[in-house]
Amino acid sequence: MTDLRNEIDSDLDQNYSLNSNADPKNMQELTIYVQNLLQNVQDKFQTMSDQIITRIDDMGNRIDDLEKSIADLMNQAGVEGAAPEK
């Protein structure tokens, strides 16, 4: 998590600084600058969204495995009312 935060801070410093040497000089450069800025933000957002979805999927798989393990243990212990295996 700290690495991701450092990467984001670094990207902000490099790509979104108002004191950058790449400051636009005319309307066309400003348009391109803003388009690039928005594209970079969209790319970062998509990357983070994909990472979140992957982590949620992993968590769901772990929960399924845990539920199965608990059901197996309950069946081995002969506990009544154990959930049937999936």
TrEMBL record:
InterPro entries (UniProt xref): HS1-bd
Gene3D superfamilies: 1.20.5.430
Comp. bias intervals (Polar residues): 13-23
Compartment annotation: Nucleus
A GO MF label: transcription corepressor activity
UniProt keyword list: Nucleus
Spans annotated as Disordered: 1-23
Pfam families linked to this entry: HSBP1
Chief site of localization: nucleus
One cellular-component annotation, GO: nucleus
Listed GO biological process terms: cellular heat acclimation
PANTHER family (UniProt xref): HEAT SHOCK FACTOR BINDING PROTEIN 1 (PTHR19424:SF0)
Function statement: Negative regulator of the heat shock response. Negatively affects HSF1 DNA-binding activity. May have a role in the suppression of the activation of the stress response during the aging process.
Family according to the record: Belongs to the HSBP1 family.
Record note on quaternary structure: Homohexamer. Associates with heptad repeats of HSF1 trimers and probably also HSF1 monomers, and with HSP70. Association with HSF1 trimers and HSP70 coincides with attenuation of heat shock response and the conversion of HSF1 trimer to monomer.
Name listed for the protein in its UniProt record: Heat shock factor-binding protein 1
